[in-house]
Amino acid sequence: MAKSKANKKDTTTPLNGHEAERVDVAPEAVTPAPNGDENVSPFLRQQKARLLQLRDSLLDSMAGVSGDILRARAEGSEASAFGMHQADAGSDAYDRDFALSLLSQEQDALYEIEEALKRIDAGTYGTCEMSGKQIPEARLEAIPFARFTVECQAQIEKQRKATRVRQPVTSLFGLTEEEVGEGEEEDTITETKD
Prior knowledge:
Radius of gyration: 32 Å
CATH architecture of the domain at 40-125: Up-down Bundle
Distance between the termini: 117 Å
Strand order of the largest sheet: 1-2
Order of helices and strands: HEEHHHHH
Number of strands: 2
Shape: flat
CATH superfamily of the domain at 40-125: DksA, coiled-coil domain
Strand content: under 5%
């Protein structure tokens, strides 16, 4: 009986009274272009898809790390009630700090991805923010959220390195030489009053 149903054609009676064969066709999937513009290059569509995939992956990773931090904090508070060993507490604190550092880096990457998606929508994706030159597609494929050409990025990093010069330590307590001198004078004055 099942075979006879499978062999029969599915027919419907349209409004004009004639029988017609019904054909089920799935509608073609249309992926909307960024900003609704159909003239967007395939490269931009590919980059947007990659950025969205990176964003989703980062969000999943961040949720996992933050969940681990919260779980560790809850477990740590329970363990502290029973007298956790100092070394274990130190390891837990290090793990928590490391996880928070990872979370911060992932947050920075998420910001860059979101900004790249905004640039795609605005039509400025692939243009160096410093020089206004086109960023090569090879660089954008390697780093889809790149904002600068290699030359401009090198210049920025060179400037950052120059401004990161360490100041010499003049005091263990962070006092300047003038403040150290003032403290010594006060000590000598109090000694003479006694």
